[in-house]
Design goal:
Elements (H helix, E strand, L loop, with lengths): L19 H10 L20 E4 L8 E8 L5 E6 L4 E5 L3 E3 L2 H8 L7
Antiparallel strand pairs: 1-2, 1-5, 2-3, 3-4
Length: 112
């Protein structure tokens, strides 16, 4: 008996696919914006300060800064009021005032 010749499927993107010019035009149309303010960070973020997280999984939650890490994009390790920790860019953290914190906790205590 004679063996059959092995055939391989045609690779997608070979003749008839987009040309190099079309791929270059598509790549040029995709733009990325980089927040250059992230490199400066927020100098008012210090260990122990109360902050509000503005982006990510815990957006909108209040947290306490546990450590601040310098570098190209400064970051801070924060622990939320729900006892969860995460690392966030300092540009994504907003310092919380005492009035905002009291309103968020709903304590309604009056100081005399």
């Amino acid at each position: 008996m004679r063996r059959r010749k092995v055939t391989y499927p045609v690779r997608p993107g070979t003749p008839g696919g987009p040309s190099a010019d079309e791929r270059a035009a598509a790549a040029a149309s995709r733009t990325v914006s980089i927040n250059l303010q992230a490199m400066t960070g927020r100098p008012e973020i210090k260990v122990g300060s109360r902050v509000r997280i503005t982006s990510g999984l815990y957006a909108g939650e209040l947290a306490v800064v546990e450590s601040v890490v310098g570098g190209v994009i400064p970051a801070a390790v924060v622990r939320t009021d729900a006892a969860r920790s995460r690392r966030a860019r300092t540009v994504d953290l907003i310092p919380v005032t005492a009035a905002e914190e009291a309103a968020a906790s709903g304590s309604g205590e009056a100081t005399t």
